[in-house]
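Researcher: Here's a chain I'd like modeled. Treat it as a single chain, no partners, no ligands.
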Amino acid sequence: MLFYVLSNFTNAEIESLVEKLQAEQEKFMSVNKLYIAVSKTDCNIKSLSKAYQIVLKMLKLSQRRNISPMFYEKLEIKKLILAVDDNSLLESIYNENLRKLEIYDRDNGTDYLNFLRFYLKYDGSVQKVAEETFVHRNTINYQLAKIKKILGNNLKTFEERFKLILAFEIKDVL
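Model: Modeled as a single isolated chain. Structure tokens:
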């Protein structure tokens, strides 16, 4: 692992440097992929330790999602999750909302977890999911009914959907 600590660089300069690093990596390291995570750029010496911890989490996420470079400033809701030091709190939120479905998928050879993520991505639109997956609406509705039963969540309110979206975001980071 290699870390750079850059001081007094603009975001544009950092992005340019990242592009150059990736270009060099592609020339010389065709087997291994270079994962780059850039922490927030307004760090001072007092917050360096926290920034280091966050960038380590970002690197794990970068590798899991095969996304590089990853910039802290572009992480949206994941910034909030990265700032939480209590992983047990994050794990409990995930477990309360999605663990049952994960276990069901594992035990039954289904893929409801990914289906639910896709459904939430399209704001709960059965029509949009059917169009994107080339699956009949009745099949979509059947899968949703199973998911609702497994989770004990009817997916109707903003709060119910938000908890699931947050749990998916937590899963990505942990």
